[in-house]
Design the sequence.
């Protein structure tokens, strides 16, 4: 809902909206500084606000619960499907609960269990209601994940699509940057799609969680276009082939990390070539 409203108003109003939203998130997180046991009891009382997600989570057998990871998505993206495949290779069972727009992929293909809820606070209640050991949050930017990270009840891994801070252009208020920095700082781990946060750490002192891993998004599979006859004197850029997703370096590295159990464990990796050093 936030993104739908923010994109429909002028830029100046967007800044004011972010200031108001930032203060609202900080106040909400301050009010929710309660023990994890109290959060779970509160989630049980509020389960009527997310009945579909509650049924999905309650259907997980107790003996399988310790190998389940809850994917929380603020805005559905194909990023979740790739990490779900990696989690399954590592022996984990991903469960998806999302808000925002419609899915751009077939959820049944990647998730045995999935459900949709109404917004940010319901996603927070769901993360409290979840009885498993690990939550993986996917957010458009770090600021929007602030409440989920600050008020977490389980160990949490963060994955952000973009950062609010940029060395090229700065249109976001300071409070929005503060929310993003805090969300990254309090997360237990982070999966990075690029080196942007590491770059911001060097320039602006951005924090990094204790555990970090770089998992780049692969190139999209595209069927090569048929070559057409060209006129003399013209320069054409053509594609001689295309990459298959299963054969990219990304998948080879991802399977390697999944097999050694790094992605969803808390043991530090000693390979500096594949991890982001703090």
Sequence:
């Amino acid at each position: 809902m936030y993104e739908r409203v923010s994109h429909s108003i002028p830029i100046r109003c967007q800044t004011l909206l972010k200031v108001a939203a930032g203060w609202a998130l900080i106040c909400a997180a301050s009010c929710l500084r309660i023990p994890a046991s109290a959060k779970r009891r509160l989630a049980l009382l509020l389960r009527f606000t997310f009945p579909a997600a509650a049924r999905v989570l309650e259907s997980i057998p107790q003996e399988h619960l310790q190998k389940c990871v809850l994917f929380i998505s603020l805005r559905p993206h194909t990023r979740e499907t790739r990490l779900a495949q990696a989690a399954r290779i590592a022996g984990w069972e991903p469960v998806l609960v999302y808000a925002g727009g419609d899915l751009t992929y077939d959820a049944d293909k990647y998730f045995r269990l999935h459900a949709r809820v109404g917004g940010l606070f319901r996603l927070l209640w769901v993360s409290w209601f979840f009885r498993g050991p690990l939550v993986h949050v996917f957010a458009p930017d770090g600021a929007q994940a602030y409440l989920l990270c600050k008020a977490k009840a389980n160990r949490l891994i963060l994955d952000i699509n973009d950062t609010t801070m940029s060395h090229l252009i700065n249109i976001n208020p300071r409070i929005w940057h503060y929310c993003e920095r805090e969300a990254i700082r309090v997360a237990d781990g982070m999966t990075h799609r690029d080196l942007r946060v590491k770059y911001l750490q060097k320039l602006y002192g951005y924090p990094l969680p204790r555990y970090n891993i770089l998992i780049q998004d692969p190139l999209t599979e595209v069927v090569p276009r048929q070559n057409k006859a060209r006129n003399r004197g013209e320069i054409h850029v053509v594609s001689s082939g295309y990459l298959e997703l299963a054969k990219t370096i990304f998948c080879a590295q991802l399977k390697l990390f999944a097999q050694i159990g790094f992605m969803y464990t808390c043991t530090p990796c000693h390979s500096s070539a594949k991890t982001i050093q703090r």
Q: What stands out?
A: Residues 239-243, 245-250, 265-277 have pLDDT under 50 and may be disordered. The domain at 2-212 is CATH 3.40.50.11720 (Rossmann fold).
